User: Fold this.
Amino acid sequence: MNRNSSKKQTQKSAQAPVLSVRNLTVCVNNHQQTHILKKVSFDLKHGEVFALVGESGSGKSVTSLAMMRLLSDALHILDGEVIFENNDLFCATEQEMTAVRGNRVAMIFQEALTSLNPVQKIGTQIDETLRLHSDLNNKDRIKRIIELLEEVGLPNPETRIDWYPHQLSGGQQQRVMIAMALACEPDVLIADEPTTALDVTIQKQVLDLIRGLAQSRQLAVLLITHDMGVVRQTAQRVGVMYQGEIIEENSCEEFFRNPQKKYSRRLIASLPDHNHFQNSSDGTALEPLLSVENLKVHFPQRKGILQRIHDWTRAVDGISLSIGRGETLALVGESGCGKTTTGRAILNLDRLTSGRITFAGETINTLSHRAMQPLRRRIQVIFQDPYSSMNPRMTVLRIIEEGMISLKLGLTPEQREERVIALLKRVHLEPEHRHRYPHEFSGGQRQRISIARALAVNPELIVCDEPTSALDVSTRAEVLKLLQELQQDLGVSYLFITHDLSIIPQLAHRVAVMKDGKIVETGATKKVLKEPHHSYTQELLNAVPHARI
Amino acid sequence: MDIDIFSVKPVILWTDIMIWLLVISASAFLLMLRQNPEARAQWRQVFSSRLGMVTFVIILSYIALALVDSLHFRKALPPVEGQNSSTVYYSNTVHSVLDLALGEMGELKERSYSAPLSLKSFTKENMIDASGEPYRDYPDLQHAGSHLNDPADYNTDLLLQSATGMGKGLIVGLILCTLLKMSTRRSTFPWGAAMATILVIAMVLGWLIHMGNLYHVLGTDRAGNDALYASIKGIRTGVLIGTLATLIMMPIAITLGIFAGYFRGWVDDVVQYLYTTLSSIPGILLIAAAILQFQVFIDLNPGYFEVGLEKADARFLGLCFILGITSWAGLCRLLRAETLKISQLPYVQAAHAFGVSHIRVISRHILPNVMHIILITFVLDFSGLILAEAVLSYIGVGVDSTMPSWGNMINLARSELSQDPVVWWNLIGAFFFMFTLVLSANLFSDLVNDAFNPKNRQERAV
Amino acid sequence: MFAYIIRRLLYAIPILIGVNLITFFLFFVVNSPGDVARAHLGEKYVTQDAIDNWVQEKGYHYPLMFNGEAEGLAKATDTIFFQKSLKLFTFDFGQADDGRNISSDVLTRMGPSLALAVPSFIIGIWVNICVALVVVMFRGTRLDKAAIALLVSLMSISGLFYIIGGQYIVATLWRLVPISGFEPGPMAWKFLILPIIIGVVSGIGLGARWYRTLFLESADQDFARTARAKGVSELGVLFRHVLPNALLPILTGIVVVIPSLFMGSLLMEAFFGIPGLGSYMLDAIRAQDFAIVRTMVFVGSVLYIIGLILTDISYTIADPRVRLN
Assistant:
C-alpha cells in the first residue's frame, strides 16, 4: 500500500470512517454453533474515541483480536469483514496483514508488564516496530524513539531507552506500550482495557494521554473497557456489548443522558452515587470495638555474605485507627500503600513490629495462637479474589461449616447444616447450593458464599479486603448492597479496604486515606470527600472517573 | 503342568505384598478422586480420547500379567522312598500363577540358540548317523515341533495352530468385551476403541501362548531358554520397578515437600539441604554403591532367605528403595513450590483466620490441591524407571541376574548382534515388550498431564 | 554478585560434608571392611588371615570414627573416617584396589571423556532446539502431530537399543567406522563420531519434546501477542521473542550439567571402548572397587555444586530481571 497517497485520501474525507467492522461473527472451533460474537458492526473515525463497553465475557477483547486476525487457535472467524482503506482485511494475505499491524493499526493491552518482552530493552522493542515499517537509518530511529518516549511523558528518555520493562512502574510500562504503538503514526489505535491494571491517579494520566493523542494526531481510537467512568471521561461515542452483540450505540453525551436499553441503564445505574452519603457520627466512634495504635509492620531486607539485615521495608509505618460497633471504616489507598498488610495484622496473621491492637478491650497482638482462638470467631475476613478464596475441592457446605467446626461452636452436624442453609438464604442463594463446588458459581455468587462463610461464626468485625474489585460493575453493586443490609440487621462492623474511592460514599461512615504506610487523612466520609485537606486525597478524588455530570 | 491345589505351599515375597497393597491403595485413591467433580471431569477428558483408552487398556493388561505373576507358590515334591510320609518336601523352584497360564512354555529347554519358530538348532553339531558315521548338521530341537509326526507338515501346522491360538484368544476377548459392554451400556466414552484393543491383545496373547507351547516363537538364547517366556516374565519386573520405586519415595517426598512449603523457616532450610545434598551425588553411582553393599549384605546373611528367589527379591526391593531415594528430590521440590504458592492463597488464609489447626489445613486444603502433581509424577516416572532398570541391569547393579528382566535379557544378548550369523531374536523380544509398555505409558502420561496440569487447563479456557 | 558467590561456596561446604557422611555410612557402616573383604575374596573358603591381610593392605584396619588406642590427635586421624572420607576434601583420593593411584587415573581419563561428552552435548542441544523450532513453526498442523508421535516413540526406546542398533548398522553392517576402541590425537574422530551421533539421536525424543513445550508456553504469552500486533511475522516472533525467553528455562536444565561432562558417559564409553571416566566408573562398579566409586561420588558432587552456581550466574547474565541476593 502506498502510504502517502492513502494518507492524503483519508484526510480528505475526515468524516468517513477509517475502519469499519461489518457483521463480524466468531465461533469456537469445532463448535460452529457457539458464537462468541454475533454480527458485530461499528465504525472508527479520525480523532474520535469509540468506547466498546461491556462486562467480562461479553466479547470485547475477542472483537479487537479478530479485527487484527490475532485470535487464538481455538477461535475462528466465521463471517464478516473489516474494511480498512477500501480493503477487506479478512481477504488480505498474512504478509499484507503484517504490513498493516503496528504500522497502520496499532494495539495496546491491559497488562503492560507481561505484554512487553521481559528480556529486551524497551528501546529495542520500540525500534523493532520502526525497523519493520520504516526505512529510517539507525541514528534517525534512535532520535525518533526518544521523541516518542518524550511525547508519552516518560522522564529521561535518553537513559530509559536502555532499561528493561521490569525497571519501570506500571504507568510507565503502559506509556512505553503507547509509544511503541504510535511509532509508525498509525491511523487506528486499539486499546484493550489499557488502564484496568493501574492505580486511579495513573489511570487518569494514561487516559488523558490517549484522549490528547487522538485529538493531536487525528487518531481513530477503539477503547475497550468495562468501566463506565472511563467511558464518560474519555470517549466520544459508545457501543454497549452484551453476550457477543452490540446492543446499543450512541454518542457519549446522548448515551448517558438517555440510555435506550435496560441493560445500558443498569450499567449506568450501577455506578455509585456521589451525592448520597452514609450518615455518620461526626467522625469519632463512640465506643471503639477495635482500636489500632501506632501500628508498625516492617519486613527485613537482607544483604551481604551473612545475610545481615541492612534495612527494613516499612509496609505499615505507625498508623492508628478505630472502628466502633456497627460502623464501617474505609481504608483507602493505592497498590503497595500497606492497606492489606494492615488488615492481616488486625487478623493477627502477620507479626507486628510494634504497636498495639485492641479488640473489645483486649490487646490481641500479644496473644498466643491458642489464646487468639476465642477471638477468631469475633473477627472475620472476606478476600478480594472470588476464585481463589475457596478451596476448589470442598463443597459449599464444607466451606461454610469449617469455621464452626474449628472454632468449636458446639453444634451437631444437623445444626450446622441448618445454619448453613439459613446463611445461604441470608446472602440470597439457594439452600441446594450447599452441595455444589465453588467453580460452579459466578464471581458475585462466590463472593456471597465468602460472606456467608465469614458470617457463620457470628463475627462482630469483618475485614473486607477489596471484596468487590474483581467483580463486574453490576454484581459489585449487589454485593455492596448485601453488605450494607447485613450491617443494618446484624450490627456488624466493617474495615473496608479498597483502592476505589467511588464506592465509598454510600458504604463507609468514616474514611482513612493511606499512602506509603501512613494515614494521611481521616474523618467522616462526607467531610473527607467534599473538603479534602491533604493534597494526596485531592489527587485521588480528581482521578476518580465520574459517570454522572 | 498338572498340579494339585492342596499340594502347594504359597511363597509370599515382599514385592508381592507391596504390589498388591499398591493396587488396593491406588483403587482407593481413584475412588476418592472420583468424588470430586473436578477430578472426575479431568479423568473424563483423559478417557474420552481414543488414544487414552487404547493405551490404558494396554497398560492395564501389562499390569494384569504382572499381578498374576505376583502370586507365587512352591509345588510339593513327590514322596521319595523311605521318606516319612507325613512330611512333605517342596520343590526349590518357585512358580507363579502366570506360569500355570503359560503352560509348559518355560520348561521347554533346548541346548543352545535356535531361531524363532525353527525346528532345528541354530548351530551345527557333530552327530552320528544311523550307520554310525559321524557328520555335522543342525540337530533337531528337543521340544519345538515335537508334536509333528512329519517335519513336512510344518507349514500347514503353523497356519493351523496359529488359527487355533488366535481363535482361543478371540473367544476370551469376546467374553471380556461382552462383560464390558454389559457394564457400560450408557456412557459416552470410546468403548469401541477399548474393545478393539482388548480383542487384539487377547488374540496376540492367545497366539503367543498356544504357539509358545509348541514352538519357540521368539527362539532360544545361548543357554537354550525360551526367549518369549523370558520376555513375558520380564513384565513383572518392569511394572513393579515402575510403580514400587515411586511408591516408596512418595511418603518422604510428600511429607518433606509440604512441610517445607507450609512451615518455611528452618524446616524449609533443612529439607532444601537434604535434597540438594542427595541430588548432588551422581545418581548412578549412589545406586551402584548401595546395591553393591546390599548384595554383600545378602551374600553374608544367607540365613534370612529360604529360596534363591527370595534373595533376588530382597535385592529387587533394595533397588526400588534406592531408586526411590535418588528420585524423591524432584517431587519434593515441586511440592514445596506448589505448597508455598497455595499457603498464600486466600482460602488458606481464611482457614487461618478461623483458627484451623495446621494438620487440618494441610490435610484438607493443601494435600487435596497438590494431588494432581503427585499423580502426574507417578505416571511420568513410570516409563522412566522401566528404562532405568534396563540400563542398571546392563551395568550390573540392577535386578539380580537370576531374575527375569528385560535389562538382563539385553545384557546377555548385547554381543549377539556382532556374531555371524546374527542372533537378533533375544533383543527383539525385550525390545518389543519394553517399547510397547513404555510407549503406552508415555502417551498415557501425556494425556494425564494435559488433563490435570492447571497450566494446560488455563490455555484451554482461553 | 560477589557476595552471593561467596555465600554459595560457603553453602557448598555443609553439602559436601553431607555427601561425605552418606558415602561413609554406605561404604563402612552398612558392611564392615571385613565383610567387604570376605565378599571380595570369595565367601566360604577364605581364611581370617587373608581377610586381615586384605584389610591391612587397603588401609581399612583403623576404627571407624574414633581410635581409642592412638595418642593425641591420632585418636581422630587414625580412623577410617579421617583417612578415607575427610582426605577427599584435599583431593587426596588414595589408591584403587589394584594399587593404582586414583588421582592420576582420573586426570588421564578426563581427556577422552571430554572428547566424547562435549561434542555430544553441544550438538545435541543445537539439534534439539532446531527440531523443536521446526515443530513449533508447524504447530496445529498434521505435521506437528506426526512429529510429536515420532518424538514420543523415539523417547520410548531404551538408550541401550540405540547403542546396540547403531553399532550394528553403522559399524558391523556398513563397516564405516571401527566398532570400538580409541586412539589419542587427531585420528580420534574415527572412533568418536559414531558414539556422538548415537548420543545426539538418542536424546532427540526427550530433549526436542521438552523444548517444544517451553517454546509453546512462551509463544502463548502476552509479549508474543504484542509482537504480532506490531506486525512482526510469525517467524520473527519465534526467533526474536519466543526463543530468547524460552532459553531461560533451558539454561537451568543445561548449565547445571556442564561441569558433570567431566564425568563422561557410562554407557557410551563402555560400548565403544573409550578409556574415559565413564568406563573407569563402570569397571570399578563391576570389580566392586569401592575406593574408586567413593572418589567419583565426591568428584561428581563437587561438579554438581559448581554447576548449580554456574546456573545462577548464567541466569543473571541472561535474564535482566534476576538479581542475585
